[in-house]
């Protein structure tokens, strides 16, 4: 027999991996070899609007893991499921497990509704097999691994799931602090090696030679080799990468952003003497609000695909803070940053408690089909937003950074999302989809949560009339205009913050001569229209 660890889209690592650690220990106990399996499911990628960059990142990491697993005499085998047969994975997998003589299957839970249904079907099939004595009837377990505090663990005093972030955050921080030792001392044991003989095991032997594909059909990088090069440069994988990204954040001095080129080894970076106070994490309260500084961790893609354990940020912050409590609050940079990790958990918990958010429904049912979105003939406005040609420089800069890097600063994500759903009054689901297709850190929970927050259809208790003003926001987060000048070269001749609102000082003719565009909406009028639409929708809902 063999023990099978099923590697998923969100747990691509060897260390502190709950299912892998369990499967590895069990294989040793039973004296049978461990097999690592990864299933590519293009049908699921399409259903989730998963983009080529996110998939390329995953393939690169799997190629790295293949080598690391092999060092432990463990094969990493992959299966590509037919695009039209994504719902057939449970049957296909159970047949394979039987063919391999597997004694058990272990994986980490993916909280999206289709994925949960798939796992339930596997549990049912194995149960039936146990009863009938036909087919794979071994042990099957799914582990909670993707969050610090897993969905379902925290409830309100009334025993209900939290629907509002602030009380969740307080309870989350208390919970983490009360169980701090569990988080700080890694609970998951290390990966244990198979005996040398695994390499000649009849089932495993050919799997060692199996190659990880470099592309998935239908999900090739649009920009070909050039884009592949950029992605490898900005989002590297391999030995020590996540440690190095985190160290830049926890020990290096804040500097002007190079807008992410390159993120690692930054030649002109220096370590500070008192990281708790003056490193990027130490100054996170200010740094996170400036797009022209390199003030955030850039760890999101690595957390989203599980290259780093969700518990690692807790350990890092705890060690750095040097106190018995984990700081989690607005009083310090470290505490503020830890709150963001709480946001990540919050959105996973929302996705689990209200699975309708995975099914293109708003969290707030008042807005279920009630908002009258603007008509956008031929989709020209949506296209202008995607292309970074709206005539609002901060929006355009941000959208261009997304296209080039597969990443966008959090402040900009909020601005462009508010702009699409309020100023253009275009269905937020169009924006969610485009983000998902283009972000390397794309994750349904955080992306959907962020979009519904901006579109006022989500958990945020603030009413719909919070509408970001892209011009005043731009002056706050990019006071000198450097970020905009970098991404919108047409405007490089404009000095200082005048770059944020060219239409205020330049004629339409001059703006066109520069190669730029006039604003596609009047923000003040659009704001009034959006408020009216939302007001009517709320009344209808
Ligand atoms: P840091 O500021 O260093 O934060 C540390 C970590 O905390 C992040 O890596 C991330 O895992 C988590 N985090 C931070 N802010 C949030 C947040 N608001 N919600 C949830 N988690 C958070 N984040 C994603 O990981 N994937 C997405 O698909 C995604 N889509 C978004 C869409 C919109 C419209 C908005 C407004 C936000 C979205 N975010 C998403 C959240 C946030 O913008 C990114 O996590 C952050 O910009 C990543 O940069 P960083 O790693 O430097 O973050």
Automatic annotation (TrEMBL):
Residues 262-281 are annotated as: Disordered. GO terms for cellular component: cytoplasm; nucleus. The keyword Iron does not apply. Binds 1 FAD per subunit. Residues 2-148 form the Photolyase/cryptochrome alpha/beta domain. GO terms for biological process: circadian regulation of gene expression; entrainment of circadian clock by photoperiod; nucleobase-containing compound metabolic process; response to stress. FAD binds at residues 284, 296-300, 337, 340-347, 441-443. It comes from Rhodotorula taiwanensis. Its cofactor is FAD; (6R)-5,10-methylene-5,6,7,8-tetrahydrofolate. Residues 264-273 have a biased composition (Acidic residues). This is Photolyase/cryptochrome alpha/beta domain-containing protein. GO terms for molecular function: deoxyribodipyrimidine photo-lyase activity; DNA binding; FAD binding. The record marks 373, 428, 451 as: Electron transfer via tryptophanyl radical. It comes from the Eukaryota. Keywords: Chromophore, FAD, Flavoprotein. Belongs to the DNA photolyase class-1 family.
């Amino acid at each position: 027999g063999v023990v099978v660890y099923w590697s998923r889209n969100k747990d691509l690592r060897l260390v502190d991996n709950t299912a892998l650690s369990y499967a590895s220990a069990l294989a040793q106990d039973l004296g049978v070899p461990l097999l690592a399996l990864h299933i590519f499911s293009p049908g699921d990628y399409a259903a989730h609007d998963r983009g080529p960059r996110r998939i390329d990142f995953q393939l690169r990491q799997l190629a790295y893991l293949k080598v690391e697993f092999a060092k432990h005499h463990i094969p990493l085998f992959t299966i590509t499921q037919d695009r039209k047969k994504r719902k057939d994975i449970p049957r296909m997998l159970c047949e394979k497990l039987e063919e391999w003589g597997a004694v058990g299957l272990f994986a980490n839970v993916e909280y999206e509704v289709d994925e949960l249904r798939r796992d339930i079907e596997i549990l049912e099939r194995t149960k039936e097999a146990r009863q009938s004595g036909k087919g794979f009837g071994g042990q099957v377990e799914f582990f909670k691994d993707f969050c610090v505090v897993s969905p379902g663990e925290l409830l309100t005093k009334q025993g209900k799931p939290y629907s509002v972030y602030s009380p969740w955050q307080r309870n989350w921080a208390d919970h983490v602090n009360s169980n701090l030792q569990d988080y700080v001392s890694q609970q998951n044991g290390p990966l244990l090696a198979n005996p040398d003989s695994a390499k000649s095991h009849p089932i495993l032997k050919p799997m060692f030679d199996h190659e990880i594909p470099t592309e998935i059909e239908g999900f090739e990088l649009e920009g070909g080799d050039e884009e592949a090069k950029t992605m490898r440069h900005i989002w590297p994988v391999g030995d020590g990468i996540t440690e190095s990204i985190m160290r830049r954040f926890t020990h290096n001095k804040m500097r002007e952003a190079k807008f992410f080129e390159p993120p690692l080894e930054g030649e002109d970076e220096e370590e500070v003497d008192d990281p708790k106070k003056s490193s990027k994490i130490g100054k996170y309260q200010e740094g996170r609000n400036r797009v022209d500084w390199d003030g955030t961790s850039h760890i999101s893609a690595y957390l989203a695909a599980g290259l780093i354990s969700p518990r690692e940020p807790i350990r890092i912050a705890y060690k750095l803070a040097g106190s018995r409590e984990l700081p989690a609050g607005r009083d310090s940079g470290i505490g503020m940053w830890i709150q963001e990790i709480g946001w990540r958990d919050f959105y996973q918990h929302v996705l689990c408690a209200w699975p309708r958010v995975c099914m293109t429904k708003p969290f707030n049912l008042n807005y279920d089909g009630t908002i009258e979105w603007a008509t956008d003939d031929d989709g020209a406005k949506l296209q202008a937003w995607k292309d970074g040609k709206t005539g609002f420089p901060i929006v355009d800069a941000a959208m261009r950074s997304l296209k080039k890097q597969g990443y966008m600063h959090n402040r900009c994500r909020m601005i462009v999302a508010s702009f699409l759903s309020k100023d253009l009054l275009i269905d937020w689901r169009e924006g969610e989809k485009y983000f998902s297709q283009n972000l390397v850190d794309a994750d349904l929970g955080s992306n959907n949560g962020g979009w519904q927050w901006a579109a006022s259809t989500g958990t945020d208790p603030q009413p719909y009339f919070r509408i970001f003003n892209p011009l005043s926001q731009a002056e706050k987060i990019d006071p000198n205009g450097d970020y905009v000048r970098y991404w919108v070269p047409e405007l490089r001749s404009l000095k200082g913050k005048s770059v944020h609102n060219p239409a205020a000082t330049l004629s339409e003719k001059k703006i066109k001569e520069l190669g730029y565009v006039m604003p596609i909406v009047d923000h003040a009028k659009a704001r009034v229209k959006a408020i009216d639409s939302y007001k009517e929708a709320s009344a209808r809902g």
